[in-house]
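Course assignment 3, question 2. Fill in each field.
Student: A.L.
Task: Predict the tertiary structure for the chain below.
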Amino acid sequence: MPRQCLILPALLLVLPASFPAAAPWQETLLASLNGRNGSAPSGLAGDAAGNLYGAATYGGAFNAGTVFRLTPPAPGGKSWTTTVLHSFQGTSGISPFGTLTFDGAGNLYGATQKGGGGGDGLIFQLQPPAAGKTAWTEKVLFAFNGTNGTYPHGGLAADSSGVLYGTTAGGGAYGFGTVFKLAPPPAGKTRWIFTSLGAFNTPAGISPNGNLLRDAGGNLFGTTASGGATGNGTVFELQPTQSGWHFRTLFAFNGSDGSEPLAGLVADASGALYGTTFVGGAHAAGTVFKLSPPAAGKTVWTQTVAKSFSGPDGAYPMAPLLLDSDGNVYGTTDAGGAQTLGTVFRLAPPASGQTRWSSTVLKSFVSANGANPRSLIADTAGNLYGTTLAGGRYAEGTVFRLSP
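Answer field:
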């Protein structure tokens, strides 16, 4: 039966409102992972009850990674509760990475970078416990074999019929990565249907790493870490047509405007795309960029560098961004800040008649509270939630909240 995939209302990809630049943000450490429940967490997802779900790349019962849940405190309590929903091993997957995706039935979907029959990674589903039970059940939906892709490294996009879309950083016809579609089984069947939508080569780009963005027309947008005209990476689009999927490169980076876009994209109401590059820019420490659609009658997308990081304000962004309703951009950097352990930042769009975006560091990490932050999500009150790859009490990573 088709499953309706959706973003649940408690936690959003677009913030509901903006907040004054001068307002102090309060950090709360929700959990320090300890290895047994996971290590090196990546992105988060949330449900309507306020629970947080994440994938940890390592740790767990077999040191192959976990999916965990954080439950908010009971009324009057302070501590969040961490529960391991699944520990990966071998053929069931190794090293999950990226943001998890929910469907309307409460199932979770994600990717592991390795594992499966051939060791090339897989797509999994975690089904919530049956009535009266406590154990979540993993189902391997598809295992890669190299020729159809290897090393799925980002989260999954989904449409209203439950079809999943994703990328692999390697494999495919040229060995440089793929874009794929995974459709639920037809009625009466159990096997999910895999379709390769395209394989990357050097001119088109190499190693798509981040999440795909799917718009209302079914078009897919993403980035490649390298390749393109100068080898610094690209932004691409895949358009569904009656004769198949049509690929085109929207933009190729040249280094001075950014290099190595490792994360996926977000879009505003006008269709402009926003993303980050890991390095490049004015100080070689990475950028935030905006890519605006062509003007009427034109075909060329216009790129603007909204921010070039310099170190004290952050360095080496490698996670997706968030937008709020006023066009402010929120994100993280892997390094830089007061102790070079990463930051959470906000960029405010230029005032009328101006071109300069204004930048604010909302949080500079210290080891005790985490290091190397990853992607953010937000609740309807505007609180930000995220993970750090390292740091915390056990140096295995953390889950944090920032409140305006």
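Instructor remarks: The chain has one domain: 11-403. Residues 11-403 form a domain with the Neuraminidase fold (CATH 2.120.10.30).
Grade: pending
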